[in-house]
Amino acid sequence: MPTAEPARIDYDIERRIAERLARLRAERGWSLDRLAKHTGISRATLSRLERSELSPTAAMLGKLCAVYGWTLSRLMAEAETRPPSLVPAAEQPQWRDPESGYRRRAVSPPAPELRGELVEVHMPAGASVSFDASPIAGLEHHLWMLDGSLTLEVDGSRVRLREGDCLRYLLAGPTRFQGTGKRGARYLVAIVQP
Q1: Which run of H or of E encompasses 38?
Q2: pTM (two decimals)
Q3: What pLDDT score does 109 carry?
């Protein structure tokens, strides 16, 4: 099976995510110290993130989204300039975790009146990404493996997924995704908000 050419990463989205994170904190009237206390991320790191001087990791964004009650896809979509119904492939926002190389593309960004999102993820072989908590309690996930293999730890269970497998679960506690095999993993996640 031929491997797809890596899609273009929108590096400007990091700046827009940083701006949106700063606005979210300001909208709540929180200080950097208060946000640091809620997330476990240092005040200095949060400040650098909001000024777009530091690329956020998936773990950092997971903690911030959990505090704000948002999904990462919503944060990415909010960082866009307009909320279109049709999102051409070339305009689907992508983000790369600088720590693991994990790439996430918001295939169908969320909209305020809709509850579902579709996200494509590329996880390099051997890379792993962990999230401490669900950004929204009771978030429903349908993870469909498109290529490669993945080990997922969710709700105290460890599941190994291979091409074609689909796992449905409610996201409540910590999760850990790890690309296994020689090719890593490429998968699609359908996210349904409660």
Answers
A1: helix 32-39
A2: 0.64
A3: 67
Greater confidence (14 vs 111) lies with 14
Is the pLDDT score of 10 beyond 70?
Answer: no
The bridge status of strand 103-108 relative to strand 157-162 is unpaired
- Are 102 and 61 in contact by the 8 Å Cβ rule? The answer is no
Question: Which residue shows structure tokens 């797809």?
Answer: 4
CA–CA separation, 72 vs 125, rounded Å?
Answer: 22
Number of neighbouring beta carbons within 10 Å of residue 171: 20
Q: What is the per-residue DSSP string for 142-180?
A: EEEEEEEEEEEEETTEEEEEETT-EEEEEE-S-EEEEEE
CA-closest candidate to residue 177, choices 124, 105, 139: 124
What is the CB neighbour count within 10 angstroms for residue 61? 22
| CB burial of residue 149 (10 Å; 0-12, 13-18, 19+) | buried
Higher pLDDT, 85 or 161: 161
